[in-house]
Amino acid sequence: MQQLIRSARTVRGAIVAPGDKSISHRAAIFNAIADGEATVQDFQRAADCIATLRCLRALGVDWRWQDETTLTIRGRGRHALREPDRVLDCRNSGTTIRLLAGLLAPQPFFSVLSGDRSLLSRPMARVVRPLRLLGADISAREGDTRAPLAIRGAPLRGVRYRMPIASAQVKSALILAALYASGETVLEEPAPTRDHTERMLGAMGAEIHSEGGTVRVAPLVRDPAPISLRVPGDISAAAAWLVLGACHPDAELRLVGVGVNPTRTGVLDVLRLMEADVTLEEERMWGPEPVADLTVRSSRLRGAVIEGELVPRAIDELPLIALAACFATGETVIRDAAELRVKESDRIRVTARELRRLGADIRELPDGLHIRPSGRLRGAAVSSHGDHRLAIMLALAGALSDGETAVRNAGVVAVSYPRFWHDLDLVSGRPR
Ligand code: S3P
User: Fold this and answer.
1) Atom 13 in ligand 1: residue holding the nearest Cα
2) Is the pTM of this model over 0.90?
3) Cα(100) to centroid of ligand 1, in Å?
């Protein structure tokens, strides 16, 4: 699908971002092994989280929609998942395959996890190796580095493991496996990553303690209690509107009920560093997660250096930040972000290549991007390369460019934000 985007004259309105993707996956997976039924409101009903739900159904878990975005899940308890009679298809979703690898490693049955072409090319040694240290019987294609993953359930033991890369998916996979191990597991993170797993499983009664980059996980002694919750708006989706609002010369946008877990708010810190006019109000808790209402207005942005611990806290938003940097005064450097090369696409290469088509002055670094101000961009034909975050970033680039922009392979926004085109029309004064 190709989508045409015209320059937005004004940017105004209020948006409710879709439910957080990371939290939705976790709410489904953790409640699947709980002792009883849970209701999850504002579940992100997009392709990635649907992939998780389908895998859970193949594992014997009952769930059903109460309405468009309210999901009820009947947990089977921690020892009653069923051997799937088919390959579990994780489609485009890294979170699905990595978290399920951790959950399935200790189950007393055989399972295979696979996915689409993009997922089959992504690194899996990062979960295979540490799971084997715990005693898992898991193998993978290309010397145990690529999916499909084949898992023969085995008894696991607790270990101490220093994670070489900052990855919440890997951390969460290991936490899930560790819940079934004999003895405590201690994980050390090189930099803080999103902690939704620790918060949610902790609220369900698991013994998980996190301090100074070390996470300690005790084996479960009983089934986790089900957790009903309302999923906060996804800050990774909201970030698109924050960048559009900050870069557009005539903008004011309000984003209601956005998750502001400090392990996810790197994008707010970066935008503040760039002197964007973003305010946060009404901070409150939805279950274990903080949420707030955000307002963004047209801003005079300045370039910034984005590196170190800030990077994992803004990892999915870095292409959007690169777009914002085109409209700033002064240079922006993003480094320590080599992980971007192994996301749904090589986000360093694609961001640089496609933004250059619109006239941006942007160059690849081995581990990031270097952006010089380009003033206004001009519409052109660009491609998402099948990556939902890049389709969204390029659509906003189009709304901020003169003339018309065509985004090829734009249907992939459905992976995380099916209502995206509707919301873009709404804020740019062209409701469908
Ligand atoms: C996620 C963790 C991050 C992020 C992804 C979602 C999660 O991936 O990029 O979109 O839900 O745990 P990594 O763990 O590979 O950094």
Assistant:
1) 167
2) yes
3) 14
